[in-house]
Design a protein that fits this description.
Blueprint: E1 6-9, H1 16-33, E2 38-44, H2 45-50, H3 53-67, H4 71-74, E3 75-80, E4 84-90
Parallel strand pairs: 2-3
Antiparallel strand pairs: 1-4, 2-4
């Protein structure tokens, strides 16, 4: 993804909801720092599949939209194998 890609590994014994909440709070901080370009996000498949759509929406989507209502149009979510969350920026022209 490039040098501006941040990888975060959570404690495996933490619940999927706790892991997603911690990651979302980190993303909120990243959104506060910069609001340009596309925010690409990697979510571990195991976490993503372990929570309901309503829980995902209330923990992830609602908290990010509260910080930056325009994020929905700029957010790219990718579900990945492995235990590592990640995020970074891509210029709008990159896709």
């Amino acid at each position: 993804m490039g040098s501006d890609w941040t990888r975060i590994e959570m404690e495996e014994d933490a619940s999927p909801e706790s892991q997603l909440l911690a990651f979302t709070l980190l993303l909120r901080g990243a959104l506060k720092a910069k609001s340009q370009g596309i925010l690409a996000v990697d979510l571990p498949r195991q976490v993503y599949q372990s929570i309901t759509p309503d829980t995902f929406r209330s923990i992830f989507s609602d908290l990010l939209l509260e910080r930056d209502p325009s994020i929905e149009a700029r957010l790219q979510i990718r579900v990945v194998d492995g235990p590592v969350f990640g995020y970074g920026r891509r210029a709008s022209e990159d896709r």
